[in-house]
Amino acid sequence: MGWWSRVAVAVAGAMVAAGAGAPVSADGVTGAAARAGLDRSAFVSLRLSADERRPRPGEEVVFRASVANTHGASLRGAVLVQHLPEGLEVTGVGGDGEREGTVVSWGVDVPEGGESVFTLRTRVPEGARDGERLETTACLRYGRGAEPVVCAGDAVTVAESAVLSRVRAFVAQSETLQAAAVALTLVLALLLWRRFSPNQG
Q1: What is the dihedral of CA 67, 72, 74, 78, to 10 degrees?
Q2: Is the predicted pLDDT of residue 6 greater than 70, yes or no?
Q3: Are residues 121 and 196 in the same domain?
Q4: Are residues 89 and 120 in the same domain?
Q5: In this structure, are residues 123 and 105 in contact, taking their beta carbons and an 8 Å threshold?
Q6: Minimal CA–CA distance to 73: which of 139, 21, 13, 7?
Q7: Is 150:142 a contact under the CB 8 Å cutoff?
Q8: Between the CA of residue 20 and those of 17, 73, 119, 156, what are the distances in Å?
Q9: What is the pTM of this model?
Q10: Range of 168's domain?
Q11: 29 with 41: CB under 8 angstroms?
Q12: Phi/psi at 156 (nearest 5 deg)?
């Protein structure tokens, strides 16, 4: 090996050693995955969950998206985008999130081996029907306008409204009382028939 080749190898080794623990951009993570022959999502994971599975109309639901970075360097410049169903009212966006219509987005910076949580507060519309499913999806992108790297979804099922539930309970109770009244009337009628029947002498 000539002296020029030895110098090139030494320089390359120094560059690799210097960058081993340095922060990388989202593009850097993408390139690292490609060089390793892995899918781009190999270095990150995304979870999306709601704090209430059966909310009633008018009640609040909080969604939490967790981004975990398993890459050997910090992640910078990624974007988390969450899409909401029509009618689901946004009442609060955590962190530096931005809302545009039914889409909420956050800038994502996650340290090496770390995890970041992004919170979105919503309210179920008053006109939501019992049993209606409200689905939401969140996707992580390595930059704005880039293709999604990993996505996660969750859904809540609307429960019967409190008012309707009380009405149903009242109707059920009324029907029970009516049935009891009918049964009592029949018993009294039978007793009176036995008491005054000509055959009961």
Answers
A1: -50
A2: no
A3: no
A4: yes
A5: no
A6: 21
A7: no
A8: 5, 8, 32, 43
A9: 0.64
A10: 161-201
A11: no
A12: -120, 150
Quick one: tokens of 162? 């409190």
Total Cβ atoms within 10 A of residue 51 = 13
Find out whether 138 and 152 touch, Cβ atoms under 8 Å: yes
Element (H, E) at 128: none
User: E-assigned strands of 21-171?
Assistant: 24-25, 44-50, 60-69, 75-83, 89-93, 98-100, 103-110, 115-123, 133-141, 148-157
In the predicted model, what is the mean pLDDT of the chain? 76
Instruction: Judge if 100 and 156 occupy the same domain.
Output: yes
Tokens of 45: 């994971």
**Per-residue pLDDT reduced to its tens digit, 153-197:** 999 999 986 544 444 444 445 556 677 777 777 777 777 667 776
Q: pLDDT tens for residues 67-106?
A: 999 887 888 899 999 999 988 999 999 988 999 999 999 9
